[in-house]
Amino acid sequence: MTIRELLARKKNRYFLAMVGTAVLAILSAQATYFFLPGWPIALALVLAVAAISGWFAYRFLVRCPRCKGNIGAKYTYFGKRGFLLFRPVAHCPFCGVSLDESVGA
Asked: Is 15 helix (H, G, I), strand (E, B) or coil?
């Protein structure tokens, strides 16, 4: 597995957790119309906090496996080819390691 694949996998996992909890928070907030007004609001608040913490993980916990630099805050796309306005990242801006190298090497 390359460093690029590892970073993309982490970023995708945090993004899906963030979006999933945000959708659940919206749905539980909408459930107040159908159920008792107390517990869906509490659930929505808990899920909103979980979505915000997922965003922090998405933004600050994706680190270079070599130097532990916060590469997730600097880049949002780790693909090999450009996508719309995103250019491919060639190396870590902190230690200079190529993202196409193997994680264990």
From this structure: helix
As a whole number of angstroms, the distance between CA 58 and CA 15 comes to 6
Residues of the chain with pLDDT under 70: 36-38, 76-86, 105
> What is the rounded CA–CA span in Å between residue 31 and residue 39?
10
The answer for residues whose C-beta is within 8 angstroms of residue 3's C-beta and 6 or more apart is: 64, 65, 66, 92, 97, 98, 99, 100, 101, 102, 103
Q: Is the pTM of this model over 0.85?
A: no
- Complete DSSP assignment for 44-69: HHHHHHHHHHHHHHHHHS---TTT--
What separation, in Å, do the N-terminal and C-terminal C-alpha atoms of the chain show?
10
Query: What single-letter DSSP state applies at residue 78?
Result: -
